[in-house]
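Subgroup meeting minutes
Present: P.N., E.W., G.H.
Scribe: E.W.

1. P.N. recapped why we're keeping a running log of single-chain structure predictions: easier to compare across weeks, and new members can see raw inputs and outputs side by side.
2. G.H. added today's entry (283 aa).
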Amino acid sequence: MGQNKQDKADVDKEKMDKEKVEKDKGDKEKQDRYSIHSIEKALDVIEVLSEHDSLSLIELVELVNQPKSSLYRIILTLEKRGFISRSEEDGKYCLGFKQLVITKNLLERSSLRTAALAEMNKLLVTYGDTVNLCVLSEDEVLYVEIIEGTYALRMTDKVGSKSPFHATATGKVLTSHLPVEEVKRMVRQKGLPKFTSHTLDTETSLLQELARVKQQGYAIDDEEIIEGARCIAAPIFNMFGRVEGAISISGARHRFPDDRISTIAEDMMMTGHRISQKLGHVQ
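Output recorded in log:
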């Protein structure tokens, strides 16, 4: 009788996961149908420039795949509004300062960042290692805030940079609460590139790891993206019980030896719990 109930629960969960994936697919199709082509192209220009120091008009034409005449009008408009700027020396284009203004306003208004900052600083004082605050964005881990540690090994990530979801502790925490079908879609979309000999590079091993992460309440990046570095992360929940972000601490492997993992993980989970409470989460 108990087995029958468990089987029914598993079937119901699988059905809910599939319904969510179908809903997300329908939302994506609706977004594509109502998108405005000229705005799409303008955003393409901004995103391409964000990946390069500077680019000429010809280089932008090739990268954005847009006719020179129409692209030039878009560039002039973006330049007029301060989103890109043109060098007087070589005539190349780069991002303008408007991005900094928008980013500053976004960070100041971010309830997640506001709720997390004090707790992040407590971790820094306690451990002295780099503390990260991340969210999931476009199937990647986006760094919302980073407080640099005081020890020699510092990570190269910066606020606004992204990392793969499968090879980071924050990424595993964030995806562990997603439906299995959604994770499989992300794997198909992004792949599972191998960064070190420790990186999880098969769907089966990743799904097993995510199930373990969800059950234990924290994740470890055990030299999976950088040799010699470890990272421990815990989830942050919003008032609706959904994962809003993840907080992590990262540094040299010798600073996070096996016999300290459980203690540090407990601290990370308690920190995530306190931030979650500030966001209105009631356990």
